[in-house]
Write a structure and sequence with these properties.
The chain is built from nine helices and five strands. It has 190 residues and is of the alpha/beta class. It has a single domain, classed as Rossmann fold, CATH 3.40.50.300. A five-stranded parallel beta sheet has the order 2-3-1-4-5, sandwiched between helices. It is globular. It starts with a strand and ends with a helix. Bound molecules: adenosine monophosphate. Adenosine monophosphate (AMP) binds next to helix 2 and helix 3. Adenosine monophosphate binds next to helix 2 and helix 3.
């Protein structure tokens, strides 16, 4: 089973993706984690991505599409994967469709974590206060708000994109974390 987990920054995608990895044996592929690792390693891709990420903007599509295209071929993805943080706009989604088609793979579901902006802004401010100066350069209130704007402008249209394909499965991302996980498992097992 290959799935996408979709939702705004602060919705808990990473945590839920890890739980799905543990519960369903699907490999979590987080483009954000991969880009942060590349930046920490000082690779050419990482150097290019670093400042863009710190500002809360999107790195160029060809970079993330290339990373995912290579990564899904690795042996640990053979049992299925969860795309966490990819695709982030319609162009990436279209590239993913072509890529999966070329590789003879299919997309089974797109899990959307639904959550109100007001809750996200509270979380964003809390997270920024807790982590400012921490390991993530983009965890300051300004960059986090930018990431939320980018989500609405570029990523939210994917909800319609996947609904039109009959792939969208929405869960209440405002419930307690365990309840969100339960709903996700219900959707994936149903
Ligand atoms: P995340 O950990 O998913 O919140 O991603 C952190 C940052 O990495 C984002 O704000 C972007 O700058 C960059 N990033 C991650 N995934 C993508 C993607 N699919 N397309 C473009 N930029 C991305």
């Amino acid at each position: 089973m290959n799935i996408i987990i979709l939702g705004p920054p602060g919705a808990g995608k990473g945590t839920q993706a890890q739980r799905i990895e543990a519960g369903k044996g699907l490999k979590q592929l987080s483009t954000g984690d991969m880009l942060r690792a590349a930046a920490a390693a000082g690779s050419p891709v990482g150097l290019k991505a670093k400042d863009i990420m710190a500002r809360g903007e999107l790195v160029p599509d060809d970079i993330v599409v290339g990373i995912i295209s290579e990564r899904v071929e690795d042996e640990d993805c053979a049992g299925g994967f969860i795309l966490d943080g990819f695709p982030r706009n319609v162009r990436q989604a279209e590239a993913l469709d072509v890529m999966l088609d070329d590789k003879g793979l299919q997309l089974d579901a797109v899990l959307e974590l639904q959550i109100d902006d007001s809750i996200l802004i509270d979380r964003i401010e809390k997270r920024a206060a807790e982590t400012e100066g921490g390991p993530r350069a983009d965890d300051n209130a300004e960059a986090l708000k930018k990431r939320l704007d980018v989500y609405h402008a570029q990523t939210a249209p994917l909800i319609e994109y996947y609904a039109a394909k009959g792939k969208l499965r929405s869960v209440d991302g405002m419930a307690e974390m365990d309840e969100v996980s339960r709903q996700i498992m219900e959707v994936l097992n149903g």
